[in-house]
Amino acid sequence: MDSHQSTSEVPDQPPAVVGYAGVLRDLLPIALWREDAxxxxxxxxLAAQDLLGHRPEDxxxxxxxxxxxxxxNRELADQLTRRVHSGETVVGTLPVRHRDxxxxxxxxxxxxxxxxxxxxxxxxxxxxxxxxxxxxxxxAALQSLFTQSPIGLATLxxxxxxxxxxxxxxxxxxxxxxxxxxxxxxxxxxxxNATALEAMMQQVLDQGAPVVDARRTGRTPADPDxxxxxxxxxxxxxxxxxxxxxxxxxxxxxxEGQRALFEAERARRRFAVLGRDxxxxxxxxxxxxxxxxxxxxxxxxxxxxxxxRPAPCTSASSPAAGP
Length: 323
Fold this sequence. Notes:
The protein is α+β, with helices and mostly antiparallel strands. Helices cover about 35% and strands about 25% of the residues. The protein has a 6-stranded mixed sheet with strand order 1-3-2-6-5-4. The protein has a 5-stranded antiparallel sheet with strand order 8-7-11-10-9, with helices on both faces. Strands 12-13 form a two-stranded antiparallel sheet. A hairpin with a 5-residue loop joins strand 4 and strand 5. Residues about 1-15, about 280-310 and about 315-323 have low confidence and may be disordered.
């Protein structure tokens, strides 16, 4: 726990005020306070003030129980205090009274701690239960996304080195997830325009704007003899305060879809060519003595002879056939 130093942030704090818990301030605020052998508050953290509303000057030197413990829980609080003073650590979910009167349910660790006079006191560490549940659900969702998603996923640090890779991306690259960690893309799969992709990722870090559906084509150890195509998207990885910690990458293998589109376009062009034949072109072809007819406009396109003999062509300049 860092001691509070900045007088510009919270001016004229008593010496018993304890600062915030580093990065946990944004991730999971942790309230901390200490009580002496008589149950008086001798230290009060800034995070405790944020979570419970009580200012240090209102609590320091005062008994904690009348202020923080709901009346219905006073007897339980006295029992827990006796257990802690006997050297036991207590962990549980308990309500704590906010400065405005409402109760805040908190996950609490109450551990023995020597007070300023060398007597057995207590240190209390508390986090809001709703925040713990939110974090649990977020971590579960993230874990499920990484382990079950068919999309290739990765997180990279500000140096563009892999921090985490899911199995889907490892299969795409033909390199195990563990072999990605701590390496840059150019070190893992250099054969996929990795230098250009790293320049794109650096742009995402510098500008803070995501890139969606950037296409890359190349070969990886997963399929070294064939080109494959991927749709790549990159977005900044931000903390709760909006600071950029790195970036998130997602990749989808679109090779088969690209091939299907290519074949469909090629077929469309073939039918378009056939549809541009001038009137009488087929009849002229049948008048040729050659057994294999060539397409009238594409010498590489053979036209198979029909088994039926076509009727003679009639044009506007030819006389009409008599009865």
